[in-house]
Design a protein that fits this description.
mainly alpha, about 65% helix
């Protein structure tokens, strides 16, 4: 009953370009609808209650050795969700779909963030965190049963990065906000870490985007709402867009961050350590698959060894990977009498 009321509300309130819950392409495995929640609300809840979502709190965003105030994959995910929902509401898009995509987009990220992703891609020849995120929700969650999400959420998760383009405006919005969000908060964390000073950022970027974190987020939000409304109102080239000047400064900011932070000295040093750990764990379990947890041993009955070991390493948090590495490398005598 309550679901029906929400679906009626969506039909009469949301933009004609919004993805309506009632018009979803459905799930891979058909199932009975909830009488309270729409299909996208149900997806959101399944993601929030998943094991892989909880693990995001223990996975690196940028800095592997972090202070308590630094972002993790989980806080990054919350920020993407919050900013995306703010814009979705202003544009009268489907907030529930936006939220589900945003909360699920990084579920496949490895321990140690992009460093771990690069190692697994090198070792396997094909590993991308967006593909892995889809694998998590389709296969790995619930001990191999998956979450059975809707096609629209799956599409948004898969295409939130890379060359793929989501087929909903909600998915396109999350894709843009993912980049906006990490640029904004990575600057703040870099300044907190002492890697950057505010004055290090080129003045022309600060003048357009703002000289504080909140001002930069505010600039992006207002610009996206304003520019996208023009395309929706004109009914031409319907898309999520930014102004040329904001896009230009965002691209320049991204170049600046890669040069000075992501490929900077501190991140490079920590990346070398992370690379060594991930590579060791991958090769170790390739040689000794019988030491994998039971769930992954069960997967070996239907999946390749490289696929299963990649899944296991990718699902590990930073701290678990470090402890596992120590356990396999450093001897710990179990029974030593004190003298």
């Amino acid at each position: 009953m309550y679901r029906k009321e929400t679906e009626i509300f969506e039909k009469y309130y949301l933009s004609p370009y919004a993805q309506l819950s009632v018009e979803s392409k459905g799930r891979l495995i058909p199932e009975e609808e909830c009488d309270i929640r729409t299909c996208y609300q149900k997806d959101r809840d399944r993601i929030i209650h998943s094991e892989s979502f909880r693990k995001l709190k223990g996975k690196t965003q940028v800095f592997i050795v972090t202070y308590d105030s630094f972002r993790t994959r989980l806080t990054h995910t919350f920020e993407v969700s919050q900013i995306s929902r703010t814009i979705a509401r202003a544009l009268k898009l489907n907030e529930d779909l936006v939220e589900a995509i945003a909360l699920g987009h990084d579920l496949g990220h490895t321990c140690f963030g992009h460093s771990g992703e690069e190692v697994l891609n090198k070792l396997t020849g094909n590993f991308k965190h967006n593909d892995q995120s889809l694998r998590v929700v389709d296969t790995l969650e619930r001990n191999g049963l998956g979450l059975n999400l809707t096609q629209e959420v799956r599409d948004g998760i898969l295409n939130h990065t890379g060359d793929g383009v989501p087929y909903t405006l909600e998915g396109k919005l999350v894709k843009l906000i993912d980049r906006v969000t990490y640029l904004c908060h990575d600057i703040q964390d870099s300044i907190s870490a002492g890697i950057l000073k505010k004055n290090d950022i080129p003045e022309d970027i600060l003048q357009v985007l703002g000289d504080t974190h909140s001002k930069r987020v505010n600039t992006f939000v207002h610009d996206i709402i304003k520019e996208t409304k023009v395309t929706l109102d004109s009914e031409m080239d319907i898309n999520i867009v930014q102004s040329e000047i904001v896009t230009d400064k965002m691209n320049k900011l991204r170049e600046f961050m890669f040069k000075n932070v992501y490929n900077g000295e501190l991140c490079t040093i920590e990346k070398e350590k992370a690379t060594y750990i991930v590579e060791f764990l991958y090769k170790y379990f390739i040689e000794k698959p019988n030491e994998l947890p039971d769930m992954y041993i069960e997967f070996l009955k239907t999946e390749s060894l490289t696929r299963v070991v990649s899944d296991f390493v990718a699902m590990s948090t930073d701290s678990y990977a470090i402890k596992l590495f120590q356990n396999k490398v450093i001897p710990f005598p179990e029974n030593i009498n004190s003298k």
